[in-house]
């Protein structure tokens, strides 16, 4: 009798242990509330949002301070002034003429209109880096390297009188004004670069009169 009761009790205990073991493997289903959170956290989130809203703690979109933009613009102007101030002297115009096209984002130089055959001089002393024909619109052109990281380029030349690695001064004649390349009239397309970046030649050149208005 005792053995039977013992076996019976052991079976009940074993059954409970087995059921508890199976139930422990079943994940409890948690219902979702606001923003995919549980109901408890949903209530907390809603209360927090209400407090933030009425308490003034909510995000505000703002633009960068105007002072920062002004400071950046002033820095750029100062950098441009430093660059132009470091250009080698003396500086001359490549030849007499009129300013027909100014420097812009789509025109990285200036056009100085004049007569065919006008002698072209380098704007300052340097060494000829290249003297050749360019198929992409410049035609006959000469590039001169100057001290302090500057270069100047003269395009649409009719004749070229210098060669690569030749030392030139403002007295040297690089060539003559022509109509080679893409051009609608006799002029010199002049580009100036500083460390590979185009700068406005008018910031370093003597003044050039504007092209007279046609009648």
From TrEMBL:
Superkingdom to which the source organism belongs: Bacteria
Keyword Transmembrane helix: yes
TM region positions: 41-60
Keyword flag Manganese: no
Keywords: Membrane, Signal, Transmembrane, Transmembrane helix
One annotated GO molecular function: metalloendopeptidase activity
Pfam families: Peptidase_M23
InterPro entries the record matches: Cell_wall_metabolism_enzyme (IPR050570), Dup_hybrid_motif (IPR011055), M23ase_b-sheet_dom (IPR016047)
Domain (M23ase beta-sheet core) ranges: 107-201
PANTHER family: L-ALA--D-GLU ENDOPEPTIDASE (PTHR21666:SF289), PEPTIDASE-RELATED (PTHR21666)
Entry protein name: M23ase beta-sheet core domain-containing protein
């Amino acid at each position: 009798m005792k053995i039977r009761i013992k076996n019976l009790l052991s079976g009940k205990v074993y059954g409970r242990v087995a059921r508890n073991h199976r139930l422990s493997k079943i994940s409890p289903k948690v219902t979702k509330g606001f923003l995919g959170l549980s109901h408890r956290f949903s209530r907390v989130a809603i209360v927090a949002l209400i407090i933030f809203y009425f308490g003034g703690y909510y995000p505000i979109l703002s633009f960068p301070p105007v002072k920062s933009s002004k400071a950046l613009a002033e820095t750029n102007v100062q950098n441009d002034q430093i660059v132009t101030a470091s250009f080698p002297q003396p500086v001359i115009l490549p030849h007499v003429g009129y300013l027909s096209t100014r420097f812009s984002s789509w025109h990285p130089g200036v056009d100085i209109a004049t007569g065919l055959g006008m002698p072209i001089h380098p704007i300052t002393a340097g060494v000829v880096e290249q003297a050749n024909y360019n198929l992409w619109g410049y035609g006959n052109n000469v590039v001169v390297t100057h001290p302090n990281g500057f270069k100047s380029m003269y395009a649409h030349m009719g004749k070229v009188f210098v060669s690569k690695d030749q030392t030139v001064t403002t007295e040297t004649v690089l060539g003559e004004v022509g109509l080679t390349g893409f051009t609608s009239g006799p002029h010199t397309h002049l580009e100036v670069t500083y460390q590979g970046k185009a700068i406005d030649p008018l910031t370093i050149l003597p003044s050039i009169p504007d092209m007279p208005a046609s009648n």
